[in-house]
């Protein structure tokens, strides 16, 4: 309308489009700042993110989920402004420029993505062409030539060969004073005797010092019962001794008293009988004279004759009694009394033996009670004889309350100057270890020091392995430490390495380069364009390298992974020498190498071995 002046509005500048600042001010703060300029603020929720819309006066930044100002809304799928709310001049200009900017940005992004896709397709085509060409080239090469690219070779060398047997052992004294348990287990029990108190391990003791005290309560009870038996047997011995003395007196009493008295009594009876007979005969004679003169009747004469017969009968009885006494009664009584003497003597000897045994048993019990106090037999340092074998179900641990058996070693008083290592050698290597062989020793307590020793003893019988042990047997080897360092104690762990064989100039290859087929040994060789197998004769081994007795020469190369190519090569035909004969020849060769004179080198000995094997039909 004329007359009305239109307010001048400055032309808005191009809206600012920037990436979202993750640490910028929140939309709420921006909206609060804008509220002073925009009277109406609709609640709209955009799904797009990453754009900044604003004016030169106040740019706006927003994220997904923030509320937009009322003047615009962005959809989730469209890249342009959909509509305007309450358009003003400023709002229309901003919306128009925003649509133009979004369209130009989308076009540039589409062009850039097209260029990247084209370069990726070109690179993929080049890789595909190169891989196909390499595959075609590989297929055209011979198979043996392709195998040569996968082999790992090792040269055959001539060097010092050392064969060591390494075992783990325990340090102990070579000169020990063992302290045994001399207390017997109680009757009917095989569990042993309990330790009541024990001296601490490592204590320095003198001769006669107390080391431990064992439980003697059962022995005390046994001593009381045995004392009662001993008193009873003593009373029986006294009684049997008295009976024996009495029986001897009874024999003398009969011979010199009772028999003589009985004999004299009978002799008196005979004398009386003879006197009575003489009187009776006188009466009869006188009665016959009177009867002849009719002074005696016939009846009185008959009575006098009867008196004579009675006197004769009494005399004969007395004489018979005397004969019985002298011939039978005396002999019988003497024999009976002599038998009583022998019986009482035997009874007395039995009671004497019983008493002696009871007395001896009492003395043994008292000695056992005294042995419950264990004293040091000599001066030294106390070491417990513990058995810490993990495979043992009942390990021996010396401590208060532990049970010990008769003849069990409880303590050791070692000599610190003479120390040795006890190691267990497997039965597969026991024949290689000999007395006098050198050894090196590593002690965990002295990790930076290598000790030297010598084998002093090799047991002939295997060590006990318990019920959970394997079938493999182990034999104890004792290695004396030549110069034990100060502070070394029995029971320390040590690693022993025994040198069982040394060859100063031996042809050798790694053990993994050899394969066995049909009892024979082979190694694979790398040629110019193919692989070949060669039969070899082996010597000693130390689980890392093998000594070659025949079949290879120094400087040749053998495969380190021959098992991967066994199916690609043909093994040589079997020679005329049997496996048993070759092993016999090999043992002879080893003996020749071990016993060679100083003027003969190892290579000469191996050369002679090769000639021997070659004469038997070798390669």
Description:
- With 619 residues, the protein is α+β, with helices and mostly antiparallel strands.
- It has 7 helices and 25 strands.
- It has helices spanning 27-34, 89-140, 143-148, 217-292, 298-371, 579-594, 602-615; strands spanning 52-54, 59-61, 72-73, 83-84, 153-155, 157-173, 176-180, 193-198, 204-205, 210-214, 373-375, 380-381, 383-384, 403-404, 409-414, 419-426, 438-443, 446-458, 474-481, 493-510, 515-517, 520-526, 531-541, 545-550, 557-559.
- The protein has a 6-stranded antiparallel barrel with strand order 6-16-19-18-17-20.
- A hairpin with a 2-residue loop joins strand 21 and strand 22 (520-526).
- The chain is rod-shaped.
What descriptors fit this protein?
single chain; 619 residues; alpha+beta; 6-stranded antiparallel barrel; 4-stranded antiparallel sheet; 7 helices; rod-shaped; disordered N terminus; disordered C terminus
User: The biggest beta sheet, please?
Assistant: 6 strands, antiparallel, barrel
Helix content: 25-40%
Total count of strands:
25
Structural class: alpha+beta
Report the total helices: 7
Q: What portion of residues belong to β-strands? A: 15-25%
Determine Rg (CA atoms, Å): 63 Å
How are the strands ordered across the major sheet? 6-16-19-18-17-20
Ends apart, CA distance between termini: 125 Å
Look at the structure and give the mean pLDDT.
75
* Poorly predicted spans: 1-9, 11-64, 70-87, 596-619
Specify the overall morphology: rod-shaped
